[in-house]
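Quick start: load a record and inspect it. Here is Arginine and glutamate-rich 1-domain-containing protein:
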Amino acid sequence: MVCCANSDSLHGSSRDKADAKPGKAAKNRQYRRKLEQDTRNEENAVQSVRASQLASLEEEVLKNVEEAVRIKVEEAMGSEEVKQRIAARLREERSKLEAAVNAQVEEEKAALMERKRREQEEAKRKQDELEKILAENRRKVEEAQKRAAQA
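Running the structure step on this input writes:
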């Protein structure tokens, strides 16, 4: 019987070990999952910090570049060569504008003169027509007077 008792106790203890193993395995899996989750959280946090640092660095670099460009532009605008180029360009644009205004004034003047010429021609035509009518009327009056004198 001892043999059987030992066998039962062995079986009983192996059953206890088998029951205990799933508990430990589950805890190990749970621990590993938690560890993986913590690792992912840390990686996300590190990535977030890096992204923030990169954005901050980009912003600082952008400010530095803008400042450098502003300084270069101010220096260039202050140089005598640039001032002369600007003055020459202004003179050129002014002369173009003056030429355009003069051309427009000449066109308007020509149009006005043409209109006045047409008005004068129309007035002369009307005057000639009126004189013709008056001459015709005088002729008719003279003829009527001659007929009346003959009658």
